[in-house]
Amino acid sequence: MYWDVKSVQLTGPLSFNVQFEDGLTGKVQFETSHLTGVFESLKDPLVFQKIGIEGGAVTWPGELDLAPDTMYAEIKAKGEWVLR
């Protein structure tokens, strides 16, 4: 799908850039207030740095992932996706 993530690059402690299959690029930024529940493990910089791509989605160990279609829509509309 056009919203599948093709590449990901860390840009900071809680941020990264993505490129989608159709060439769209943008930034994803986590605010610490979002790092609760299933995302709490991402507070650990060593865990956050283990970012990857699986099946077109951004993933981390522990079966954590972000919905690529939602990420795509936010980045297409705003140039970035801030998770608050």
Give an overview in words:
- With 84 residues, the protein is α+β, with helices and mostly antiparallel strands.
- It has one domain: NE0471-like N-terminal domain (NE0471 N-terminal domain-like, 2-Layer Sandwich), CATH 3.30.2020.
- It is built from two helices and seven strands, in the order βββαβββαβ.
- The strands form two sheets. Strands 1-2-3-7 form a four-stranded mixed β-sheet. It has a three-stranded antiparallel β-sheet with strand order 4-5-6.
- A hairpin with a 3-residue loop joins β5 (57-60) and β6 (64-66).
- The relative contact order is 0.26.
Main beta sheet strand tally, sense and closure: 4 strands, mixed
> What is CATH's topology name?
NE0471 N-terminal domain-like
Whole-number radius of gyration? 12 Å
Q: What is the CATH superfamily classification?
A: NE0471-like N-terminal domain
Count of extended strands: 7
CATH-defined architecture: 2-Layer Sandwich
Mean pLDDT: 97
Low-confidence stretches: none
The tally of domains stands at 1
Q: Please state the oligomeric state of the protein chains shown.
A: single chain
